[in-house]
Amino acid sequence: MFKKILIANRGEIAIRVARACREMGIKTVGVYSTADRQSLHLQYCDETICIGEPAPLASYLNIPVIIESAKKTGTEAIHPGYGFLAENPAFARACEDNGIVFIGPSSKALALVGDKVASRITAKKINAPIIPGMEVSGADIDEYLKIAQQVGYPVIVKAALGGGGKGMHIAHNEKELKENLELSKREAKSAFGDESVYIEKYIEKPRHIEFQVLRDKYGNVVHLCERECSIQRRHQKIIEETPSPALTPELREKMGETAKRIIAAAEYVNAGTVEFLLDQNRNFYFLEVNARVQVEHPITEMVTGYDIVKRQIMIAAGEKLDIKQEDVKQRGHAIESRIYAEDPDNNFMPSPGKILFVQEPQGPGIRVDSGIYSGWVVPPHYDPILSKLIVWGETRGDSIARTIQALKNYIILGIKTNIPFLKRIVETEQFINGELHTHFIDDNLQSLLPRHEKIDIALIAAALNSLNKKQVHLNYAQKVVSESNPWLEIGRWEICQM
Questions:
Q1: Residue of 16, 227, 233, 292 with catalytic role
Q2: Is 227 a catalytic residue?
Q3: CA angle 430, 431, 435 (to 5 degrees)
């Protein structure tokens, strides 16, 4: 087993990896940009090292600096977390060239599954169902128009090396396709450094179902069942759950076995996620492979009991997978809500700034993976995810009820967050009935956004209430001054640091 691992990430995922390493007796090195000097994740690492200025290209995406930091600190392996360099074949190759273990697939497998067109071809070779569309990228305009005519509109344009919704645009006719091709190419070039795009048939209101797969270098492979990630905003998942209310045991087994065959065909080793779209007739189609630990991995851990981050490290260290498919059971139901620093009142714009106060929900079945604390300043340079609220219940109904209460009790003051927006989603009749699809938010946006019809009355009531409170406070303050104060009597004190 490794003695020291460098965590090439920040925030809640860096803390998640550091906790797993601590439990395994592995020392950790945390990295940070100059904007993250006060970040919480550094308190969970045994060593820390600054890797540059706030801009991601100057720090968390700077491959030479991170490799040099690993060598300087005597690190044997690097865990990339998710985002940043997690799916960058050049980074995995740099680790290999410098004798450092990349905790993830090989650079070769990463390059294969990272190319969406190559992944489609791999899936087709093993007769996995794929969405009708192109098997090449970078063709001329006539080829795109020809394929669109063959599969029928609407079609969706996607970046060949993309993810996270970047470069994705729907076209309902030839004119929109021509416009969106240029737009997608520009976005793909900006986000991924490559303007290659392709098109495929756009499936109306599908569900997004993914399977967590583990595979070791000896060819042992197992899936840890599915996650439903249909609640998305601008192609970004914000609420995930497992089990999916749409799958039968037979369909789960069929999709899980297909996921394992795709991972094996790509000669992929480590933890990976195979994503599918499920149409309204319960036909499923291969979408892509995500070659990293997923943001939503905790809900799988909650229902199966397997620690996915520890399994990543064990597989990277060369250990044999000791889980058999028949060992994997789903117990209960789990829901994850992603907490973002963003303003639903202002088109979900990021909301950086100082967090004045944080109170996390607590109770049976509640887990919070967080990277924030009271007094910390959310920097404007990175993805605005703050934490993840993961809730487990014996049934889906229990899990929904517990999630609603936990969101009510999750208090973050000083910045805007999407917590009220998430609560309104989970409270809808459609969500409770399991009527989910990837257009859920678009179709219900007006009812999900904050309502301000009686804002004047509310402001007047708040002002009157505030006046009353001030009077009470003054009287109370005068009374307290005359009493003893234990915080002053115990002498000099400070809050312990972790």
A1: 292
A2: no
A3: 60
